[in-house]
């Protein structure tokens, strides 16, 4: 391979980066914006005739939602300049140039209705109030008049209302994007009350970051954050409160404060109001993730009632803790998730009685809709596809546990969006090699209308070929593990290619996408590498025993020995995989795993890029180490630290870290670098000034440096000089969507 050829490959690889993928794949997703049973979505095509379509299930039609040329003319532009909008009757609303817009599709008159949503001031359901935090207290503002009302009067720096713990607030990223992190609160349905908390950070461990190039210039400055680590005597807690608007009467929850170490429940769907506003519901985990409790809070008295509780000897499955399943029905019954029999299933709790809703050697993954009138629940589950435990299928069952039926019965993975009333669902089905097909189904599973079939023609023209889903035997010689093999672009089976393991070890999430497309690997494939992704033992998504294998074994980094065994098994029947040239790359927990691979399997992994790695769990967030590795034990945590094994390094390792990483502090990488120096080991180090965990603003440079490292040490050629990647755009609207 020549430098000239690599120059061409670098240009092609840039085309395949995630932010450029929209120019290569079309029709791969439908983002339904519901208006009752009908919905609006934006269709992108290779021809460039992009359109908003209005789908009406009643007539089984998908038609152009409005006259695009006429609306563009009304806005004074050549073509529609937005891809997200809401439709209510004949009124279209959207954001444009930082403004909220409203257009009447009857006569195409458009008007500005205000500023784009401010993350720092969530608006009430009736649109009359905006809630915000000032000087650690909770305030509201009348949107019509601008008049402000202070609701609390006792907020302090370490005891603030609606606050998020420092380690989860992403202050550096938000500053970079010019945004304000949202206050953690939930409005009542009638807009008269706010459910929130008062966060207690007193006596919490401190961590420090040095900002070498502060905005506006000047000397370096110190940034300090509350950052509890495993074994810390004090972790953040929160007192739940309900504030009346605008009077400011405060009702405080009775009982002990709840555990709140990372993202508050209000921001991740674990605290919500009942539809009638008479109760606030809360899912709360204990410090070690072994107990999950569902509370009902009386907003008038502060009384707390335990509705359900789950216990585990290791850790509650993140499917339950993530709040995608629990429902409290209008009559007070609770739809609950448990792995008590070793699989993830649904139970209905009522008046001290328990009804089993689902059972079998498969796992519920998400509750899509509960129809209380019909007494049914629509959900997705994995483990029903023969030979592969991961693809999700759509099912329906009675709340009494009878009438289980599958709405889909194929080998594909299904992701769904359900209409507000549950009558229709937008179903997107794909697998690693099958581009997405999206259809509209009714509640019985019947296809009402085909919507989109992904067009991958432009992707194939770059040299892309379909990846291969595989099953291999883990290092124990018994367990089957699964992954995807991505051949290099312009694949020729007569040639031999270096291999890169693109790793993330969990154990809180899987690495391998369930459906089509893995944006993180295509650029490496375009550079002539075969890329492997694999979920080793101890990752979630299967039975509890499989997931529990990682508990107390974080040093295995997602069972790296399974990666070694699996790649060797693949190469035994695919001689084009050159195991004399094996690399590995990962970010965050994957950064830990990439460096760990070089230290624990130096005979197999030769080259690595480790980005933002949490290399020493003793100095990472307690909310990750303690629930997944176990309560702090000095010797156990010392053993899983990469610094402990620095003398084992043999290959070519590139360490990358952002100087202002307030998730995984740069101490992790700097300590590992120092350990390598003490062990007299050669390595490469890139500290990126002014950047946080995701390295936003410098990702183009970091990406290119990673490519150069692999090209130089796996292909054995010097990378092209002077090839500069374009920094990807990062839209603030994406952050706003994350918080609703």
Distance between the termini: 48 Å
Q: Give the C-alpha Rg.
A: 26 Å
What order do the strands of the largest sheet run in, or round the barrel if closed? 36-37-39-38-40-41-42-43
Average pLDDT for all residues: 94
- What's the helix count? 15
Low-confidence stretches: none
CATH class of the domain at 464-729: Alpha Beta
Helical content band: 10-25%
The CATH H-level superfamily of the domain at 464-729 is Alpha/Beta hydrolase fold, catalytic domain
Task: Note the main sheet.
Answer: 8 strands, mixed
- The CATH architecture of the domain at 464-729 comes to 3-Layer(aba) Sandwich
Q: What class would the helix/strand composition place it in?
A: alpha+beta
Could you characterize the architecture of this molecule?
The model has no long low-confidence stretch (mean pLDDT 94). Helix content is 17%, strand content 33%. It is globular and about 70 Å long. An eight-stranded mixed beta sheet has the order 36-37-39-38-40-41-42-43, sandwiched between helices. Strands 12, 13, 14, 17, 18 and 19 form a six-stranded antiparallel beta sheet that branches. It has 740 residues and is an alpha+beta fold. It has a domain at 464-729: Alpha/Beta hydrolase fold, catalytic domain (Rossmann fold, 3-Layer(aba) Sandwich), CATH 3.40.50.1820.
